[in-house]
Design goal:
26% of the residues lie in helices and 15% in strands. By secondary structure, the chain is an alpha/beta fold. The strands form 4 sheets. It has a 7-stranded parallel sheet with strand order 5-4-3-2-1-9-8, with helices on both faces. A hairpin with a 2-residue loop joins strand 11 and strand 12. The N terminus is likely disordered.
Length: 483
């Protein structure tokens, strides 16, 4: 089908519009906007380019369109994986699904860890303070993982937080704190449930049938259980900015259309990801960043970067862009693991955030709290380091879209309104930064964090910038190009 005139936004048109200031995005100030209502986090945000060029899905409700526009602007969130598994210092759920010697735990030992789970130092406001200090603008918390343990006081299971020595509903405590501190909140909810007898024959070891058994007569009862719990999360703990499913393999067995329809009926502004067998509002690559900009019709999720090989190169039309969010750990484990010392550096994480933003995505960075309820110092150090960088350079991340220069040898680019931001990872040693392929007319160049103007020469062959010999920021120096 031939694209309509409003969809015919090619590379040259995008630069022309940017130079004229016709596509404008206003980034909210650093941190969470003062007075922001978690129920309607988009209320205090100005319209984004996604709305102005009218390329959000026309079939979405107006509330959902606004929520998606807000989500695009927010860019950076905190993922939290937590539960009784932290007591054993093992990964969440997987030690019973795919047992490995390195976990040193049996299935029986794992499923009984909840009897020792007593996070007496849990302070949700401390988590929120850390997220704000990191520049993260929303949180996604594990309400239930694959093991079936509920961090909320569900009416439909006894395998839950209120039956631990702690007894208190940690989800309700987090919800209350997020409302008070104006932090938008969503819930991760795992469709698999190793504990439930209708999900699998629980007389067998989990490792034998952890993928679920939809051929059994009990499967419809399990889907009812799922729906009841998601209803609980939406009605007792909502409103939510997102329900983040994680259906693992053969996700169609969860009747995702039924679940999403129910979510839309109860909370029309709640986003849903793509891990329940239906397309969802956004894609979810795990532990990796696509090399090219995701587009509609090409599914990417999970841990296999090869899925993104079908992505086209160059700049897509805005109508073709597919919203997406990379989720990633700070070390190699989702839940708390005292033995995992493979921490990613602050520099790596900042550059990953810039890389994600350069392709129009969001970055959901995970922490795994300790069994006491605190967040370990190594995570805090890195999160606060990212926040310090964002205080000086957040303009180049929040509210931006994919940059017009996608194949830079020295770094990445993002764009907002009439400004292009160059994220320079590899600083030139000769005091000259050379850029080719830029069609927009540049009017002003400066170091974003310092505000220092840079001399530049633009010809039909490219743009040449005079830059300091030493990089102002070895993590990521941002250069602002006004067009």
């Amino acid at each position: 089908m031939e694209p309509s005139s409003e969809e015919r936004v090619n590379r040259r048109d995008l630069f022309r519009l940017a130079g004229a200031g016709a596509v404008t995005v206003f980034a909210p100030s650093f941190g969470v906007a003062s007075g922001l209502n978690p129920a309607k986090p988009e209320e205090k945000l100005a319209p984004t380019c996604w709305e102005q060029v009218n390329h959000l899905d026309r079939g979405q409700s107006e509330q959902l369109r606004k929520r998606m526009a807000w989500w695009h602007e927010a860019k950076f969130g905190m993922f939290i994986h937590w539960g009784p598994c932290s007591v054993g210092s093992v990964e969440i759920s997987w030690p019973i699904m795919v047992p490995e010697a390195r976990w040193h735990i049996t299935q029986e030992e794992y499923v009984n860890l909840y009897k020792r789970f007593n996070p007496t130092q849990y302070d949700p406001k401390a988590w929120i303070e850390l997220a704000k200090a990191a520049g993260q603008r929303y949180m996604v918390f594990t309400s239930k993982h694959h093991d079936g343990f509920c961090n909320f006081d569900s009416s439909f299971t006894d395998y839950k937080i209120t039956n631990t020595p702690y007894k208190k509903d940690i989800v309700q405590m987090l919800v209350d704190a997020c409302r008070e501190e104006n932090m938008p909140l969503g819930f991760y909810y795992s469709p698999p449930d190793m504990r439930h007898p209708c999900y699998r024959d629980t007389s067998k070891p989990v490792k034998e049938n952890w993928r679920g058994e939809p051929m059994r007569a009990e499967w419809p009862l399990y889907l009812n259980y799922m729906e009841l719990q998601v209803r609980e999360l939406l009605t007792r703990y909502g409103p939510l900015v997102v329900v983040w499913f994680d259906g693992l393999n053969n996700q169609e067995k969860y009747d995702g259309y039924r679940m999403v329809r129910m979510i839309r009926e109860l909370s029309s502004g709640t986003l849903v990801n793509n891990r329940i067998g239906v397309p969802g509002d956004f894609e979810t690559p795990e532990q990796w960043v696509p090399k090219r900009i995701p587009v509609r019709g090409v599914r990417i999720s999970g841990t296999n970067p090869e899925e993104a090989n079908a992505l086209p190169g160059g700049l897509p039309r805005l109508a073709e862009f597919k919203p997406w969010e990379t989720n990633m750990t700070i070390n190699d484990t989702w839940a708390y693991n005292k033995n995992d010392r493979k921490f990613k550096s602050t520099q790596f994480l900042v550059r990953t955030l810039a890389d994600v933003a350069s392709k129009g995505g969001n970055f959901l960075l995970n922490v795994g709290p300790t069994p006491e309820g605190t967040i370990q110092p190594e995570f805090q150090e890195r999160l606060r380091g990212i926040g310090e960088w964002l205080k000086a350079n957040g303009e180049s991340i929040y509210g931006t879209t994919f940059g017009p220069l996608q194949d830079l040898s020295f770094g990445k680019s993002t764009a907002k309104g009439g400004t292009i931001y160059l994220h320079v990872f590899d600083w030139p040693k000769n005091g000259k930064l050379e850029i080719s392929g830029l069609e927009a007319k540049v009017k002003d160049v400066r170091l974003l964090a310092r505000g220092t103007h840079l001399h530049f020469v633009q010809t039909e062959n490219g743009l040449s910038l005079d830059v300091p010999v030493e990089p102002p920021d070895t993590t990521d120096t941002v250069i602002s190009l006004k067009t």
